[in-house]
């Protein structure tokens, strides 16, 4: 579950719905008031602003369509036709399950019995990009949060994760947190 993408989709749709409602109200007010003013005093000034309402409605519809398109694109399952890629030096950010009727589940994955349960893993790439992948329960059980390693992905599906023992720090913060290696003392 990528909350950033879901927030964007929600804002696109909510903003579009709001623009449609406001555009409808503005249209009613400007066309109604403009017609009354024109009938009484032959002054068409309010009618000149009347197209603002339909423009807001059109912008709202475009925003809703963009939000829905992004949402469907984000939720689109893998078709299996995507190329298999190997990602080296990834970090497991989180692992969880989405259980229908319950929500997000973070532990005791082997106790989940619902066949509609989806297992997900978030990985951070070398470039710092966080991506979310669906996976089988067996793959989920082989990864732990904070592990580094190599991942094999196909579309939005994590097919394999190979942990790397004794991984090398990728940035200064990791170097500060890892204990220094003492080459002189025996293991």
Which percent bin holds the helix content? 40-55%
State the low-pLDDT regions, or none: none
Q: Give the DSSP E fraction (strand runs of 2 or more residues).
A: 15-25%
Rounded average pLDDT: 79
- The separation of the N and C termini measures 42 Å
| Outline type | elongated
Tally of helical segments: 5
Give the ordered list of helices and strands: HHHEEEEHEEH
Main beta-sheet strand count, sense and barrel state: 6 strands, antiparallel
Radius of gyration: 26 Å
Concise structural overview:
42% of the residues lie in helices and 25% in strands. The chain has 5 helices and 6 strands.
Q: Top keywords for this entry?
A:
42% helix, 6-stranded antiparallel beta sheet, 187 residues
Structural overview:
This protein is of the alpha+beta class and 187 residues long. Helix content is 42%, strand content 25%. It has five helices and six strands, in the order H-H-H-E-E-E-E-H-E-E-H. Strands 1, 2, 3, 4, 5 and 6 form a six-stranded antiparallel sheet that branches. Strand 1 and strand 2 (103-105) form a beta hairpin. Helix 1 (3-41) packs antiparallel against helix 3 (52-75). The longest helix is centred in the N-terminal third of the chain and has 39 residues, at 3-41. The mean pLDDT is 79.
